[in-house]
Amino acid sequence: MRFSCYDFNMVLPNDWKVTIDKKSQYGSGIISFITPKGIALDIVWECLDRYKAKAPTVEVFINNYFEEMKNNRNIKSLDVVKGTPVTADEHETFPHEFAYTYKQPLSRGVSLKIIGLSMYCLHSNRFVVAYSKMDPKKENPDEAAMRDAIKTFGCSCNKNAKL
């Protein structure tokens, strides 16, 4: 099915559940898609102005984010795969994926794998991240469907969409 809301669109399997945070609005919010196996794919967005001063492009934002993770002493391992940034029609997108292990106080290490896409929408002044997190040590039967859905993510705003 093709899902579209707040000018975001994505192609998803028709058996996924959709929830929209009740505080969501055009300028900021959260939409979650849940697979029948309980894995979530989230779209989170907020005002781009909060990020552009420190990171003028989405690529700079992602690079800064990974540098902060590398410098975090609780992160025990970090494996990053960055895609190729794409700029088209005032949308800067950057696919990425990373796996890391972090140590929580009084517990063993926890491992996570994140696959996602970050976007600066210059038309609507929004910073957007579409992502899914999973345990890299377990079988993830929904991973291929998550990757396919993220590849279809887009923003269909127009020049009149500025906030």
Order of helices and strands: EEEEEHHEEEEEHE
What's the level 1 CATH class? Alpha Beta
Number of strands: 11
Structural class: alpha+beta
Write a structural description:
- The protein has 3 helices and 11 strands.
- The protein has 163 residues and is an alpha+beta fold.
- The chain has one domain: 3-Layer(aba) Sandwich (Protein Transport Mog1p, Chain A).
Summarize the structure.
With 163 residues, the chain is α+β, with helices and mostly antiparallel strands. Helix content is 17%, strand content 45%. It has helices at residues 49-52, 58-71, 143-151, and strands at residues 2-5, 8-11, 17-20, 29-34, 40-47, 75-82, 86-88, 91-103, 109-121, 126-134, 154-155.
What's the structural blueprint in terms of helices and strands?
Layout: E1 2-5, E2 8-11, E3 17-20, E4 29-34, E5 40-47, H1 49-52, H2 58-71, E6 75-82, E7 86-88, E8 91-103, E9 109-121, E10 126-134, H3 143-151, E11 154-155
Antiparallel strand pairs: 1-2, 2-11, 3-4, 4-5, 5-10, 6-8, 7-8, 8-9, 9-10
